[in-house]
């Protein structure tokens, strides 16, 4: 079956612009996660959605970062007023609750 | 809070040699343990996981890991590596009954040379 998909695969933007990253989870997976992978910080948790529960936003690094999940499926991660330190690979994962997280290929974000 | 330490950032080995990638964790509560592999320009793929039961866990591609609670370790092993095993390997933990987030180590870059 289809895995987790993410778009775009690469995004280059200018400092100060807003960007939106999209994640399509595996069908039937109720949990969705965003992580960030950067050279300096490694893999960091950003946010977790589970069904209709309030998301766990404890990993978002600043209020410039936000995410939503519409209809319990597709999720969008938005970064406002991008900074150079936001450059990283943004990974999305999905799972059946409390089970293995399956990762997408990631979106490579470059902020110039 | 949990933390994961992968003791070696890079491990070079020759083809058909055995390899061990080390992982130690710190947690005040019980955890689940995972090893993921990342090939160049790809996402993370699960190699194996320890949830409960036997402390020796077998995964895909001939890898296995042993959970040692007293030493808080979860080292990854393969008896004979192939060129195609060249990748970055990440150890991760998740608390039992707590947050669903994975906490990752910094990764170990395994390079298999002919």
Largest sheet of chain A: 6 strands, mixed
Topology pattern of chain B, helix = H, strand = E:
EEEEEEEEEEEE
Q: Number of folding domains of chain B? A: 1
Q: From the alpha carbons, calculate the radius of gyration of chain A and give it in angstroms.
A: 13 Å
From the N-terminal CA to the C-terminal CA of chain A, the straight-line distance is 37 Å
CATH H level, superfamily name of chain A: Immunoglobulins
- The class by helix and strand makeup of chain B works out as mainly beta
Fill in the CATH topology of chain A. Immunoglobulin-like
The count of strands of chain B amounts to 12
Task: Give start-end ranges of low-pLDDT stretches of chain B.
Answer: none
Provide mean pLDDT of chain B, rounded.
94
Largest interface by Cβ-Cβ < 8 Å: A-B, 25 and 20 residues
What is the CATH-assigned architecture of chain B? Sandwich
The first-level CATH class of chain A is given as Mainly Beta
Quaternary structure type: heterodimer
Total helices of chain A: the number is 0
The main sheet of chain B comes to: 6 strands, mixed
Might you state the CATH topology name of chain B?
A: Immunoglobulin-like
Q: How much β-strand is present in the residues of chain B?
A: over 45%
Task: State the helicity of chain B in percent bands.
Answer: under 10%
The number of distinct structural domains of chain A comes to 1
């Amino acid at each position: 079956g289809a895995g987790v998909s993410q778009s775009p695969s690469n995004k280059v933007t200018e400092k100060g612009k807003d960007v939106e990253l999209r994640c399509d989870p595996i069908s039937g997976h109720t949990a969705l996660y965003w992580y960030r992978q950067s050279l300096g910080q490694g893999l960091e948790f950003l946010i977790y959605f589970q069904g209709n529960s309030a998301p766990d936003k404890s990993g978002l690094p600043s209020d410039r970062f936000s995410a939503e999940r519409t209809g319990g499926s597709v999720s969008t991660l938005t970064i406002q007023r991008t900074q150079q330190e936001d450059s990283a690979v943004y990974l999305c994962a999905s799972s059946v609750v409390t089970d293995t997280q399956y990762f997408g290929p990631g979106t490579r974000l470059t902020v110039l | 809070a949990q933390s994961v330490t992968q003791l070696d950032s890079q491990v070079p080995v020759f083809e058909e040699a055995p390899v061990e990638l080390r992982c130690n964790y710190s947690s005040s509560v019980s955890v689940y343990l995972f090893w993921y592999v990342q090939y160049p320009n790809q996402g993370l793929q699960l190699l194996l996981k320890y949830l409960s039961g036997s402390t020796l866990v077998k995964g895909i591609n001939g890898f296995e890991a042993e959970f040692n609670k007293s030493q808080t370790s979860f080292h990854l092993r393969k008896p004979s590596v192939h060129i195609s095993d060249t990748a970055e390997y990440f150890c991760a933990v998740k608390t039992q009954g707590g947050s669903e987030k994975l906490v990752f180590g910094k990764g170990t870059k395994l390079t298999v040379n002919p």
